[in-house]
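Subject: Protein record for review, amino acid sequence with backbone structure tokens
Why sent: The fold of this protein is of interest and is recorded here as tokens.
Notation: Tokens come from a learned vocabulary of local backbone shapes, not from coordinates.
Attached in line: The record itself begins immediately under this heading.
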Amino acid sequence: MRARLQALDRRFAWLSEGVDRSKALRLACVVLAHSGDSWFWLLGLGLLWWFGDAGWSQRALLMAVGILLTAAVVMAIKLTVRRSRPAGEWGRIYRSTDPHSFPSGHAARAMMLAVLGVAQGPPWFGIVLLVWAPLVGLARVVLGVHYPSDVVAGMVLGALMGGAVLAIF
């Protein structure tokens, strides 16, 4: 199985080539990659829970619980699989605090949030998150902190976690 994933990842190695040639593309990828950070979402959701109306407070709480549950599942898988991140310079904080790449926690979190956004939010909110989620994963590949299969697995896991959170709560 691992050999098939590596072969698939090699076929998409071109995604991370050339990002350094365009400062605008690199900046867009950095912003997108960081936009999936859990601390950023938990801070924003905390503010939304505190200052939002009842509907947005409830959505914020559900999404925060989803982030925490998804993080636990992702970490358990990462510690079991222990796949090293691709070689590279960008993302030193990710490389030092979490050296394992499979599955992508950012992709899982983004897709889980998109599923919850579609199910619980107004239509515009769900659409924005559905467009944003794959861009987060793509940015992580382009910047070289994940292999494409890490992101695909993360997105599948995130969709499943979104469905589980909805079923539980």
In short: Residues 48 and 56 are 7 Å apart (CA to CA). The helical segments are 2-11, 23-34, 38-51, 54-81, 92-97, 105-120, 123-142, 148-168. Residues 38-168 form one domain.
